[in-house]
Write a structure and sequence with these properties.
Blueprint: H1 2-5, E1 19-21, E2 25-27, E3 29-33, H2 38-50, E4 53-58, E5 77-81, E6 94-97, H3 104-107, H4 112-127, E7 130-136, H5 163-183, E8 187-192, E9 195-196, H6 207-216, E10 221-224, E11 230-232, E12 234-235, H7 236-248, E13 255-257, E14 262-264, H8 265-276, E15 282-285, H9 300-306, H10 314-335
Parallel strand pairs: 3-4, 3-6, 4-5, 6-7, 7-8, 8-13, 9-12, 10-15
Antiparallel strand pairs: 1-2, 11-14
Helix pairs in contact: 2-7, 4-5, 6-8, 8-10
This protein binds nicotinamide-adenine-dinucleotide and uridine-5'-diphosphate (2 copies).
Length: 338
């Protein structure tokens, strides 16, 4: 990669290179990889609302143009179709690196976590940008510590069906810290716990999107295993607030970003039933291999150092997601001529 090393220039962070906006804050030039996906598109909304310039890099693997189409007329917004596995040259102040096939159905055999993260770190190094990695609670594997603190090293099967994702993100964290220690790149690491909300893929296999679309379509909600495994569900706006607090703050992390409210899958099905359709039923299915039995974040570190905590409980977040899903499922059905 000799071709691009000579473009390297000193860091602009905290010094020059930003366009002034109003009093006290400079307008940032921000890249969001995976910015047309579920979490990314909500982040883009908030960054643009704050007055930043935003470049989205996405290959539309699981993301959709519709998620950011409302910004197409905004001169501060740019959308690039690009696979982060390939190098790219840009000049920005901050990089939010979200690109990743995020659901079990999609993430197998994909080099994005390693090659994509390496390229974005190489970019951050060359231009002196601050880099934020969206890692995951999956780095804790099937945890032997409960709830999980950032100090826990995890319990991950390196050759299992989920390991491409778990180990991919663990490698991404390693690369991030190596670029920080070795090259002085300013980095931030978020470990995101299960998040839900509007614009989630309808059929990506995750539990909240499955239950909500099944209930709307009057199909039984598919509970895997005995349904007694637990997860903690965070509403997307809380996550976006946490990611921005992390990027703007002085601490590298890793930080757990999640809602500590813990539910079994049977309890989740019950909340979906109460929210969407009181006649909804459930159906048991065989569970997937290596499914973590329980998961709940300890968020004391983020509370203390980022002054952040989630605000939206499940019974408030689910109806917002449900109305978005209802509209999309309706449009889908109309598209089929039903
Ligand atoms: P998503 O699938 O909606 O978004 C991922 C985006 O990345 C999509 O727009 C996809 O098209 C894009 N993408 C994938 N591979 C790419 C590539 N090679 N080049 C360019 N773009 C690519 O998923 P999400 O839920 O919005 O997840 C965003 C990030 O948050 C991911 O890194 C994910 O691992 C992390 N995360 C999410 C959750 C959650 O519950 N949603 C939990 C833990 C971690
Ligand atoms: N990279 C990139 N954009 C840049 C700078 C680097 O995509 O602006 C890629 C580069 O192609 C390489 C990776 O980031 O694959 C790591 O770059 P780095 O300079 O750290 O590594 P090197 O090129 O020295 O191996
Ligand atoms: N799950 C379920 N029914 C579904 C999809 C998932 O019971 O239709 C279960 C799954 O076995 C797991 C939990 O819900 O125990 C969360 O799964 P998801 O894929 O949403 O997230 P992750 O396993 O990554 O936490």
């Amino acid at each position: 990669n000799d071709i691009i090393t000579h473009y390297r220039r000193p860091a602009t962070h905290g010094t020059t290179g930003r366009i002034p906006v109003g009093i006290g804050r400079k307008r940032m030039r921000v890249v969001v990889t995976g910015g047309s996906g579920f979490v990314g598109s909500h982040l883009v909304d908030k960054l643009l609302a704050r007055g930043d310039e935003v470049i989205v890099i996405d290959n539309f693997f699981t993301g959709r143009k519709e998620n950011v189409a409302h910004h197409f007329n905004n001169p501060r917004f740019e959308l690039i179709r690009h696979d982060v596995v390939e190098p790219i040259l840009l000049e920005v102040d901050q990089i939010y690196h979200l690109a990743c096939p995020a659901s079990p159905v999609h993430y197998k055999y994909n080099p994005t976590n390693v090659m994509g993260t390496l390229n974005m770190l190489g970019l951050a190094k060359r231009i002196g940008a601050r880099f934020l990695l969206t890692s995951t609670s999956e780095v804790y594997g099937d945890p032997l510590e409960h709830p999980q603190k950032e100090t826990y090293w995890g319990h991950v099967n390196p050759i299992g069906v989920r390991s491409c994702y778990d180990e991919g993100k663990r490698t991404a964290e390693t690369l991030t810290m190596d670029y920080h220690r070795g090259d002085g790149v300013e980095v931030r690491i978020a470990r995101i716990f299960n998040t839900y909300g509007p614009r989630m893929c309808l059929d990506d296999g995750r539990v909240v999107s499955n239950f909500v679309s099944q209930a709307i379509r009057k199909q039984p909600m598919t509970v895997y295993g005995d349904g007694k495994q637990t997860r903690s569900f965070q509403y997307v706006s809380d996550l976006v607030d946490g990611l921005m607090a992390l990027m703007e703050g002085e601490h590298i992390g890793p930080f757990n970003l999640g809602n500590p409210g813990e539910f079994t899958m049977l309890e989740l099905a019950q909340v979906v039933k109460e929210t969407i359709d009181s006649s909804a039923t459930i159906e048991f299915r065989e569970n997937t291999a290596d499914d973590p039995q329980k998961r709940k974040p300890d968020i004391s570190k983020a509370k203390e150092l980022l002054n952040w905590e989630p605000k939206v409980p499940l019974h408030e977040g689910l109806p917002k997601m449900a109305s978005d899903f209802r509209n999309r499922i309706l449009n889908e059905d109309e598209g089929k001529g039903n």
